[in-house]
Amino acid sequence: MKLKKINSKRAALELSIGTIVILVLAMSMLILGLILVRTIFTGAKYNVETMNKKVEAEIGKLFVEDQRVVLYLPNREAQIKQGEPYGLGFGIQNSIKTQKFKWQVVVDDEKIRSKCGATERNAEDWITTGGSGSADIPSGQQHFNLIRFNIPEGSVNDISSCIVRYKLVIKKEDNSPFQTEVFDVDVR
Q: How many CB atoms lie within 10 A of CB 77?
């Protein structure tokens, strides 16, 4: 009877040591995983911030003395493939007193239905972010923003002729016009 009792205690001790080892290994793996994820996200955040600063610098270079709005878009035409996201940068330069500016992107194309088989409402829905907004801009300063497009697959009937004209309308805080810029989106 005594012999049986000693063997069960030894087995219980080995089982508890094994459990402790497994717990220590599991916690180590969890901590290493968290460190890895944090490192990846920190690096990605740094890359995005660096890219944003470079885009802002490029837009800033486009401003000349009396320009109030700049679009960062070669030939004022964006070639966007269906199903792929696209970003268009713009900048507003405030040469008057500190105030709030509002902007809105609207479709300015009466023939969109015949060219693309889509409505103006459909084309406005292709703008996912930045289609409207506002910003307080101090006198003599610039504000940069991004308009993001995503045209769903199959939303255009004929890609050979689908070029949609958009207007970026910018108003001062009293709703008087500040600047209007046009650009085209060539759907591919």
A: 12
CA distance to 40, 87, 98, 134, 174, per residue, from 170 (Å): 38, 18, 15, 9, 12
CA 38 to chain centre: 21
- Sequence letter at residue 26: A
In this structure, what token pair is assigned to residue 154? 């199959």
Residue 124 confidence (pLDDT): 92
Query: Where are the chain's structural domains?
Result: 1-62, 66-187
User: What does the alpha-carbon distance between residue 118 and residue 13 come to, in Å, rounded to a whole number?
Assistant: 74
Q: The domain at 66-187 falls in which architecture? A: Sandwich (2.60)
Cα separation, 177 vs 183, in Å, equals 18
Q: How many other C-beta atoms are found inside a 10 Å radius of the C-beta of residue 157?
A: 13
User: What letter does residue 76 receive in the DSSP assignment?
Assistant: G
Low-confidence ranges of the chain (pLDDT < 70): 1-15, 43-66
Instruction: Write the CA distances from 152 to 61, 85, 86, 111, 123, integer angstroms.
Output: 33, 9, 12, 20, 10
Using alpha carbons, list the distances in angstroms from residue 34 to 13, 27, 45, 50.
32, 11, 16, 24
Per-residue pLDDT of 85-107, as tens digits, reads: 998 888 888 888 889 999 999 99
